[in-house]
Design brief:
3 domains; 11 helices
């Protein structure tokens, strides 16, 4: 599905636009872009620019300088934000993030290519590095970072640790709050296992950690290695306490795969956005009656095709765009996680049926009979 903007040549008369949400661009008589924005009602927005003037109206008057207008109708907030993001990134590649098209989030970065990885805060994405989010605030990130470091004894220090290079002046070294890889107290293989457990905890897979710990304790106990089993038991208790204190879980950018069910201009049609590895890889519109025939092939095309070389900026931007609708859900935007492609069409059809049932008006109880009640109803509308 392509997003094609319609073009109107401005001839000093009020432009005819629909009373519908959309994204629009206004160019001056020399062809230079002067306005790029979104609105929930194209007609009303352009009435402010090109309608009749009065002393009480202080809106921007563009009647004398406009050369042409481009616009596109959109049917959901998600579609509006995505189109506006693409247009702003195209026209303002260096400054588009400052225009606050949507909220940007902090990510947690773990680079397992390092010999002894540590945890960072990041607002960019690079290939080959693990990222998790979205973190609503820096405080939320700091709390999880501290929890992971204390629970799994990951190093918080800023040294370039290679092993066999102890730092006795380091506070974490003296207090044994990390596993002290600089002093060779732990080798890289076991340290990376702790990193893997920290990632599992972040994604909410603490049960996998617990089952692995229980299995390891049983094996060590069978071998009469009770002291080593006690070390594993203390780690298990730490994981239990950490989960009770910190209940939030976060997504891995590289496993962030969703189908987004969007509003359309008709109940007989539906729009879907496909999210793969944090990126919006496609938009499609379907007739609801033929959805079961068309959707399976598109799902395999979007989620099983080889991954192209990806732009880190685009991954971060589009991950944040989708995450906005997870942090602040909207009824018009329904996110379906991609786990089993075979069962996904049925899940999407069920979501569409639920949305259709919600649209049906229910029976009116105790309708208003006096003028005051009628006024209250109208003011609420």
């Amino acid at each position: 599905m392509e997003f094609r903007l319609e073009t109107l040549e401005y001839d000093k008369t009020f432009p005819t636009l629909p009373k519908h949400s959309g994204v629009y661009k206004i160019f001056d008589i020399r062809g230079k872009l002067i306005v790029l924005d979104k609105t929930s009602n194209l007609f009303e927005r352009f009435e402010r620019y090109y309608g009749e003037r009065s002393e009480r109206v202080r809106d921007l008057d563009l009647r004398e300088i406009t050369g042409r207008i481009e616009y596109i109708r959109t049917d959901s907030t998600f579609e509006t934000l995505y189109v506006l993001y693409r247009e702003r990134k195209n026209y303002f590649p260096k400054t588009y993030r400052k225009m606050r098209t949507f909220r940007l989030f902090t990510l947690m970065k773990i680079n397992r290519k390092q010999r002894f990885p540590r945890i960072y805060a990041s607002r960019q994405v690079k290939a080959g590095v693990d990222y998790f989010g979205p973190f609503i605030s820096r405080g939320q990130f700091t709390k999880l970072k501290t929890t992971l470091e204390r629970t799994f004894k990951l190093r918080p220090c800023l040294y370039n640790i290679r092993g066999n290079d102890p730092h006795p002046d380091c506070l974490y070294f003296q207090m044994h709050t990390c596993s002290r890889p600089c002093n060779n107290d732990i080798d890289r293989r076991h340290y990376l296992q702790d990193v893997q457990d920290a990632i599992a905890f972040t994604e909410g897979r603490h049960e996998d950690i617990e089952s692995a710990c229980v299995q390891k304790m049983n094996d060590l106990a069978a071998e009469m290695k009770f002291e080593e089993a006690e070390v594993i038991h203390r780690k298990l208790e730490k994981v239990h306490r950490a989960r009770q204190e910190y209940k939030d879980t976060f997504f891995s950018v590289w496993n962030f795969n969703y189908v987004v069910v969007l509003a359309s201009d008709s109940v007989s049609r539906c729009k879907l956005a496909f999210i793969r590895r944090g990126r919006v890889v496609g938009f499609e519109e379907y007739a609801v009656e033929t959805l079961h025939e068309m959707l399976p092939s598109d799902l395999h095309r979007y989620f099983n095709a080889p991954v192209d070389r990806e732009s880190g900026d685009a991954i971060y931007d589009e991950f944040c765009l989708v995450a906005n609708f997870i942090v602040d859900p909207l009824q018009s935007v329904d996110l379906v996680p991609v786990r089993d492609l075979e069962s996904l069409p049925e899940q999407i059809r069920e979501r569409l049926q639920q949305r259709k049932r919600k649209r049906k008006p229910g029976p009116v109880e105790n309708p208003p009979t006096d003028a005051h009640s009628t006024c209250v109803e109208r003011s609420c509308d």
